[in-house]
Amino acid sequence: MKVGILSMQQITNYGSFLQAYGLKSIIEGLGHEVEFIDIVPGEQLSRYRIGRFHKFGLLWKRLFVKHPLRQLRCTLKLHKRFDKEFKPELGVGVGNNSHFDAVVIGSDEVFNIAQTTWFGFSTQLFGEDLNADKVLSYAGCFGATTLGILKELNVHNKIGGLLKQFSAISVRDENSANIVVELTGARPYLNVDPVIAYGFEKEIRLPEHKGRYMLVYTYPGRMNKPDEILAIKKYARSKGLRIISNANYFDWVDEVITPHPFEVLGYFLSAECIVTDTFHGAVMSLKYNKPFSVIVRGMNSNKLTYLLEQFGLKQRIVGNLSELATIMEQPVDYDSVNAIINVEKERTIEYLKDNLQ
Predict the structure, then answer these.
(1) Of 88, 127, 301, 357, whose Cβ has the fewest other Cβ atoms within 10 Å?
(2) pTM to 2 decimal places
(3) Would you say 195 and 287 are in contact if contact means Cβ atoms under 8 Å apart?
């Protein structure tokens, strides 16, 4: 069977790369031929329209830090490596987007329209105008989008009608599931992110670094508040740990790295502990059974909070930065976490096998 994947594979983001690679590998493991499909941009909705100076504003926001030029070098290096190395390796842009026996939409925030993006409200991400015999989703996510936002934008009926044409719908968090129920009347499947479902045993690359370190995993422009910096540094120093930041410059860390996505997995595996405020940062922390703490931000609270609840790890959320050390020292019942992971891996295979026949 020829299967197309419509996902966030064009985004310069380690989590986006790894989830796309993981889903592609799982489907290929079921004996199918897989190609990625590029997103066709849609309407720019009023509340999330890209203005004339949007890119300059985003650049200014990311450079309005203590060391803007160093942060800019980090960002440019990251984009260069993704464009020249990582995306071609993933297989982005090589598909001919011809007829597919099936198209899988997901994982990642493929249904999130409450954000300012270059592709806007692309109805293609909801299955419209795809040259395929059938369309399904896998672990799709509405992100910060709520049913109320969809109704305010008057797109809920359009999206509901498109979702009803899916042969199967799989999402990865309860907010997304509730939206699908309200719009279609049917309960979708709940599946884990492909980074959890796929093993990466053959791909993972261990870092050459020696010694013990804490990994700080975040995005540009975040984790720069004085209380966050103080709490992170204080705990790391109390444990004699170096602090390593992933593709994001901070003058308070010991080293900044811009590794291959498979090396990112290795850095998580080899870390003594992790501090993160991202979904995939939490995913890789629990995947490799690490002590970790999570700072939840507004834009990712729906999916990130549900992920932690699903694995019985909601206590890893840092409500007050003074609690960071206590949370780090609190042991995690990874026997229970790993049992859930094993069940979810089987459910992933079962869902894709049943719906890609």
Answers:
(1) 357
(2) 0.93
(3) yes
